[in-house]
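Collaborator request, handled under Task 6.
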Amino acid sequence: MNCNQTVICGKIIEIGSLRYTPAGVAVTEFKISHVSRQIEADKPRQVECEISAVALAQMAEAIASIAPDTLVKLVGFLAKKSRMSLQLVLHVNKVDLI
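C-alpha coordinates returned to the collaborator:
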Protein backbone atom coordinates (compact mmCIF):
# COMPACT_ATOMS: atom_id res chain seq x y z
CA MET A 1 0.00 0.00 0.00
CA ASN A 2 1.40 3.36 -1.03
CA CYS A 3 -1.54 5.61 -0.16
CA ASN A 4 -0.31 8.04 2.51
CA GLN A 5 -0.90 11.65 1.54
CA THR A 6 -2.21 14.40 3.81
CA VAL A 7 -3.29 17.89 2.82
CA ILE A 8 -4.24 20.35 5.56
CA CYS A 9 -4.50 24.10 5.99
CA GLY A 10 -3.78 25.93 9.21
CA LYS A 11 -1.82 28.58 11.05
CA ILE A 12 1.77 28.00 12.09
CA ILE A 13 1.78 28.38 15.87
CA GLU A 14 5.28 27.23 16.77
CA ILE A 15 8.51 26.77 14.82
CA GLY A 16 11.59 25.12 16.27
CA SER A 17 15.04 26.32 15.34
CA LEU A 18 16.63 25.04 12.15
CA ARG A 19 19.04 22.23 13.02
CA TYR A 20 21.09 19.71 11.10
CA THR A 21 21.37 15.92 11.30
CA PRO A 22 24.82 14.31 11.66
CA ALA A 23 24.65 13.78 7.88
CA GLY A 24 24.19 17.54 7.38
CA VAL A 25 20.48 17.49 6.42
CA ALA A 26 18.47 20.51 7.61
CA VAL A 27 15.50 19.74 9.91
CA THR A 28 12.73 21.98 11.25
CA GLU A 29 9.98 20.81 13.59
CA PHE A 30 6.84 22.94 13.91
CA LYS A 31 3.15 22.90 14.84
CA ILE A 32 0.08 24.14 13.06
CA SER A 33 -3.38 24.90 14.37
CA HIS A 34 -6.28 23.79 12.16
CA VAL A 35 -9.88 25.03 12.51
CA SER A 36 -12.67 24.15 10.07
CA ARG A 37 -16.27 23.00 9.68
CA GLN A 38 -16.70 19.49 8.33
CA ILE A 39 -19.71 17.32 7.57
CA GLU A 40 -19.91 14.05 9.48
CA ALA A 41 -22.97 11.77 9.44
CA ASP A 42 -24.79 14.49 7.44
CA LYS A 43 -24.29 17.01 10.25
CA PRO A 44 -21.90 19.98 10.41
CA ARG A 45 -19.10 19.68 12.94
CA GLN A 46 -16.53 22.17 14.19
CA VAL A 47 -13.04 20.66 13.98
CA GLU A 48 -10.05 22.06 15.88
CA CYS A 49 -6.66 20.42 16.31
CA GLU A 50 -2.93 21.02 16.60
CA ILE A 51 -0.66 18.99 14.37
CA SER A 52 3.04 18.33 14.83
CA ALA A 53 5.02 18.50 11.61
CA VAL A 54 8.59 18.16 10.41
CA ALA A 55 10.37 19.30 7.26
CA LEU A 56 13.76 18.24 5.90
CA ALA A 57 16.38 19.68 3.54
CA GLN A 58 15.24 22.67 1.42
CA MET A 59 11.70 22.37 2.78
CA ALA A 60 13.08 22.79 6.33
CA GLU A 61 14.87 25.96 5.29
CA ALA A 62 11.68 27.29 3.66
CA ILE A 63 9.56 26.55 6.75
CA ALA A 64 12.17 28.10 9.07
CA SER A 65 11.86 31.38 7.16
CA ILE A 66 8.06 31.60 7.66
CA ALA A 67 6.80 33.78 10.50
CA PRO A 68 4.55 32.32 13.20
CA ASP A 69 0.81 33.04 12.70
CA THR A 70 1.18 32.59 8.93
CA LEU A 71 -1.61 30.63 7.22
CA VAL A 72 -0.29 27.72 5.16
CA LYS A 73 -1.44 24.75 3.12
CA LEU A 74 0.74 21.72 3.80
CA VAL A 75 1.08 18.55 1.73
CA GLY A 76 2.95 15.54 3.03
CA PHE A 77 2.66 12.12 4.62
CA LEU A 78 2.14 10.72 8.11
CA ALA A 79 4.81 8.71 9.92
CA LYS A 80 5.72 7.77 13.49
CA LYS A 81 7.60 10.47 15.39
CA SER A 82 10.39 8.00 16.09
CA ARG A 83 11.08 4.31 15.79
CA MET A 84 9.76 3.61 19.28
CA SER A 85 6.84 6.08 19.26
CA LEU A 86 3.27 5.59 18.11
CA GLN A 87 2.64 9.35 17.86
CA LEU A 88 2.10 10.54 14.28
CA VAL A 89 3.87 13.52 12.71
CA LEU A 90 3.18 15.16 9.35
CA HIS A 91 6.29 15.07 7.15
CA VAL A 92 5.90 18.08 4.85
CA ASN A 93 6.85 17.87 1.18
CA LYS A 94 5.15 21.06 0.00
CA VAL A 95 4.04 24.33 1.59
CA ASP A 96 1.94 27.10 0.11
CA LEU A 97 1.27 30.40 1.85
CA ILE A 98 -2.43 31.25 2.03
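The cover message to the collaborator said: "Residues 62 and 95 are 8 Å apart (CA to CA). The chain has one domain: 6-97. Please let us know whether this matches your experimental observations."
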